[in-house]
Amino acid sequence: KWLKGICGSSCPDDPSVSSSMDSAWVLRSPHLDGAHLAVRSLSGAHETNARLVSWAASDVGGPEVVDATLLPADIRAISWDDHDATAPLRFAACSAGGMHIIDLNYRVHPRRVRAFYKSEFDGELGAGVAWAKGGSSIVLSRGSAVLSVDAETGARQWNFQKYSTERKHSTDVKHSADAKNAPSVASLAMLDANTVVAGWASPRVGDAQESGSICLLDLRVPHGQQQTIGSGPIGVNGLCRSALEPYLLASHTGALSVGVSSEAAAAAKSEIFIWDLRRFGRPLPGAQAIAPVSSRDEHRSPLTLGSLQRSGGLQWSPTKRDTLLALVADGHGGCVRECRMWQSYADNKAGAEQLRWLGEVNAMCCRSSANSSPHDGGGLAAEGAHDILAAGWGHSSQPGMVLGLRTGGQFVLFEQRVPKMVAWSPGGGGLVGRPWPSRAACHTSGEATPGL
After folding, report:
1. pTM higher than the cut 0.85
2. What is the pLDDT of residues 155-170, one digit of tens each?
3. How many other C-beta atoms lie within 10 A of the C-beta of residue 372?
4. How far is CA 230 from CA 190, 249, 282, 290, in A?
């Protein structure tokens, strides 16, 4: 069911399939320290813009664009090949028409495409894509199905259809209605070489509460073996795994795409869910409560943000545990927030102890540079911290740093500032402690939280 395109000619895009959203990413290279891929895909356009950015900790001039190219149109999901270091600039990308294997070092093709695989399955492509099995396979979604294909040939290796929408007759009206109302994959991520986690979102009718389910799938079992870790009114968007604590997942509700109206963005809210895979299926006490992250105020109300952007709206820090980067959408772009998490235990209604998560949200500090130069989108901009299309954490050589892509095409650096909670007394001989604030702080001015 997958047809391989000839890369010597232009890769076909399906003109009958159109996207209603713009997408943007800033992706940290898994192989090259300081290298990031910045991509912007415009809805209705015939191309996607991509830039390879070099950003070393010693560069006083800020990020530098070292390569620029056009990619296939309407890119909806991107994933670096984090397994093969001999191809450090290779990644997979899903568009409306199919899946592309792209290598920025492959300059024979005008859009750097090595292979194109077109799908004939029902459903929309592009909720997520990831490399699996040591880089020999690629996992992606199509409608309500999760698929695995061979990275070299495009041949289907494995599929999991959670909700059956197979067409029996071309004029089957009931099938069309069932397919439209069936939950579809909202996001996916790899836990290890053979395990994928996927979230299905149920269609919302009117003002109905957002709901769905999250399952673990084993690629080694034909047609999949699912283990449900959560269902009901939960967040299924933006699934991501912590590199420092691989048993922790994060997801969120209320995803919006770039370019929504300012009224819709202002009204929308997102809640964050943390999933500790060690605690699911475990008898009480000690099991995790299925609930959104709570704020640290006395009422323990859910921690809410403005709606998180659909592409890369939530990312775990690669250098600091229990810390997330959140890209909050507004009518023009987004703003960068840092979310810090803590574990807490509380009794449920039955009196049994359950693990819950508390959180605090802070704005990241916009870092300026006297050598900033916004020309050609490659410079470092110090102003305009609230028009960010995409953002991504820096490498471990730049702990606490975030690279953002502005709506005008310029790059801007953000810095994580953790306020000091304890310090030596200026007079010596003792420690001075600072109590936790009584409520979560969200500093919108971009200034650092003052320390002691």
Report:
1. no
2. 999 999 887 654 444 4
3. 17
4. 17, 12, 14, 7
